[in-house]
Design a protein that fits this description.
The protein has 245 residues and is α/β, with parallel strands linked by helices. The chain has seven helices and eight strands. Strands 1-2-4-3-5-6-7-8 form an eight-stranded mixed β-sheet, sandwiched between helices. This is Dienelactone hydrolase.
């Protein structure tokens, strides 16, 4: 049957050389693919492992880079890069499209069957790809209830699922309401899951460096959010369809 394989891929974006992690399922046939975006700190082994799991499930998966191969563990450094980025939809789209192009041109990828799953800043990048009219089968986000420029959500062509912790001070109820109002006004097929008692980045295992206030790991909800991501992909991007089952 063979095994899943991985390799690093380098590509230009945002004036940097990005270093992504590509995971390929066993076999040689074309498969549906998932673009996987990291939290604002940048690509880490957490996202690499998630890409590997998706490959084990039968997807081509690319965990994309945000910071030119760097992981920004210092909160001040992370915020200094991410806050201007989050305020600039065109920069986010450039980062997203560069990674999407790498994934789409991978020979194992079915270019007509791609989804984006992103966390924090990586989720915001995924939403901007949707607002830019990218051909996607699904957009899944956690901790990324960002709103876009007026009217552009109408260009989203696929279902959107979003997850957030009820106690997340970075994505408070007012932000939730603004996000859902935008999606509803645009006629998007959207869903929002609120995980009770969870903080920001509740899905991410504890790290050995300082974090911004309001961050905390919630093991139960982390597992539930991952199941919700997998269920979204099973609904909108089933592997069985690609395998002819």
């Amino acid at each position: 049957m063979g095994t899943m394989t991985t390799r690093t891929v380098e590509y230009p974006a945002d004036g940097l050389t990005m270093i992504g992690h590509l995971a390929l399922p066993a076999g040689v046939d074309r498969r549906p693919a998932v673009l996987l975006g990291p939290e604002g700190m940048g690509l880490s082994d957490v996202e690499r492992r998630r890409a590997d799991i998706l490959a084990e499930l039968g997807y081509v998966a690319l965990a994309f880079d945000l910071h030119g191969g760097r992981y920004l563990g210092a909160p001040e450094e992370m915020l200094a890069r991410c806050l201007p980025l989050l305020a600039d939809p065109d920069r986010m789209r450039g980062i997203g499209h560069a990674a999407l192009d790498v994934l789409r041109t991978e020979p194992r990828t079915d270019p007509d069957r791609i989804a984006v799953v992103g966390y924090g800043t990586g989720g915001a990048v995924g939403l901007e790809l949707g607002r830019d009219g990218a051909d996607l089968r699904a957009i899944g986000t956690v901790n990324a209830l960002t709103t876009g420029r007026p009217g552009e959500a109408a260009r989203i062509r696929c279902p959107v699922w979003a997850g957030v912790g009820s106690e997340d001070p970075i994505m408070p109820p007012a932000q939730r309401n603004a996000f859902t109002a935008e999606m509803q006004a645009a006629g998007v097929d959207w869903r929002l899951t609120v995980y009770g008692g969870a903080l920001h980045a509740f899905h991410h295992p504890p790290v050995d460096h300082p974090t911004v206030p309001g961050v905390g790991y919630h093991p139960q909800h982390a597992q539930r959010a991952w199941r919700d991501v997998v269920n979204l992909l099973a609904e909108c991007l089933p592997v069985t369809e690609a395998l002819g089952a």
